[in-house]
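Feature request, filed as a ticket because there's no other form

It would be nice if the structure record came with a short human-readable summary line next to the tokens. Right now we just get the raw output. Example of a typical job, pasted below so the devs can see what we mean:
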Amino acid sequence: MKKALIVWGGWDGHEPQQVAEIFANILKNHQFNVEVSDTLDAFADGAKLKNLDLIVPVWTMGQISQEYVNNVSEAVQGGTGLAGCHGGMCDAFRNNVDWQFMTGGQWVAHPGNDGVKYAVEIKQSTSPLVQGIEDFVVESEQYYLHVDPAVEVLATTRFPVADGPHRFNKAVDMPVVWTKRWGQGRVYYNSLGHHADIVELPIVKELMTRGLLWAAEGKAVADGNADSAANLYTGMADSQVD
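Raw output as currently delivered:
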């Protein structure tokens, strides 16, 4: 049975406890042994983290010790997966560049704030993470991020939509969903998820489910003990999510 750790907290506006519960239920439904913690001290035991298959941070605008970041980073480098969404992963610790390097990006703005209606465009590729999923529209915060150019972008959104000083630049396609590698570990991020109701949207929940499962396979793949990652999604892509 795979083991996952979900750590939630930080700014309450992102409903971290509710989002953590959604992720926990997804993983339990896929036969994970899930530990849920509301303290960053869950990152204190580096040896324990290395024995996990997946770490899911749900923590916005916090302060974290360098020791804890190092523990997470070393675990991911060894094959433990890292997956999360919205500010819970890429606006977690604004003062820690090591965290940002590992996760692949950092939030900097959401022009128009909550309630912006915008399109999410899927980058069709051979990745099973987006197979069978079409472009969709969501009404929420539209995240503008500073993004690592090394990530593999799986979905984007076009800026500008809301007014602001950024609109005087050319239009840009901002990553919404991406993956990257950190050592042997798999990293998955989705910028959607301002509130729990957005995470519960069927198409967002499907994307997150695929990302969580994909990230959790990193250690097994590195050890040569897993089937092709595509096998994880058998049946998922056969029914398109609207």
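Something like this underneath would help us a lot:
The longest helix spans residues 202-216.
The longest strand covers residues 172-182.
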